[in-house]
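Customer escalation, tier 2.

The customer says the design service returned an amino acid string that "doesn't look like it belongs to this structure." They asked us to rerun it and document both sides in this ticket. The original structure tokens are below, unchanged.
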């Protein structure tokens, strides 16, 4: 069922007229996406995080753990490459690459275009890997039911404090590369506490995406 599809962001750019507020337009499109996905009983998850945080590895683990239970599709946002899409596609799920060109985030419009490439009645779970960046994805909801923010311990102790808006919009925080926490002198509980101060109902999973450790906690946090 693997099938390579690439959606080019620059081909589907919204026509922005003077006076239109791009964030407001995005919000409305996100709401439409949400309604469409709900109508087809598709659970959708947006995964945000910097380049190298481990988003793709986590998605590979999620797909492995859940592909018997759900029919899964993955949208993979990237500036230009299809490296991640190929990694995920090896697990036998449908992958649509969204190449955003110069854009450093996905928006609800490109996601709507990618949705047109899959048949929603054939999937139960849609996992969207956002472009590797912790800043602007916060402002562009995609219409997913849940948002996950992934940080890895190798990114240092200030990832939460420096990106409060991203954490405010997330439902679940993953602290990845837990095996390196000691070497990096990172207190994962401290990161979790900082996130909880920003988002009191945040759920957590501390993972090692390479071994699969903590993936069960992530699945639980996502209520999947
Ligand atoms: Mg990736
Ligand atoms: Zn951006």
């Amino acid at each position: 069922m693997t099938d390579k599809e690439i959606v080019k962001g620059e081909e589907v750019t919204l026509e922005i007229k003077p006076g239109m507020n791009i964030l407001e337009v995005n919000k409305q499109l996100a709401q439409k996406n949400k309604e469409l996905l709900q109508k087809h009983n598709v659970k959708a998850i947006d995964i945000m995080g910097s380049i190298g945080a481990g988003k793709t590895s986590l998605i590979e683990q999620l797909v492995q753990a859940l592909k018997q239970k759900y029919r899964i599709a993955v949208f993979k946002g990237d500036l230009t490459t299809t490296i991640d899409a190929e990694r995920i596609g090896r697990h036998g799920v449908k992958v649509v690459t969204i190449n955003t060109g110069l854009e450093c985030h996905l928006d609800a419009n490109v996601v709507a275009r990618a949705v047109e490439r899959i048949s929603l009645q054939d999937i139960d779970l849609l996992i969207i890997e956002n472009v590797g960046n912790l800043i602007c994805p916060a402002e562009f909801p995609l219409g997913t039911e849940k948002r996950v923010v992934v940080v890895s311990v190798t990114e240092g102790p200030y990832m939460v404090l420096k990106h409060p808006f991203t954490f405010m919009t997330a439902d679940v925080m993953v602290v990845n590369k837990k095996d390196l926490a000691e070497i990096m002198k990172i207190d994962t509980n401290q990161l979790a506490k900082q996130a909880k101060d920003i988002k009191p109902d945040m759920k957590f999973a501390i993972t090692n995406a390479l071994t699969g450790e903590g993936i069960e906690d992530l699945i639980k946090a996502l209520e999947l």
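Tier 2 assessment: The sequence is consistent with the input. The CA atoms of residues 111 and 142 lie 7 Å apart. The first helix runs from residue 22 to 39. Sent an explanation to the customer and offered a walkthrough call.
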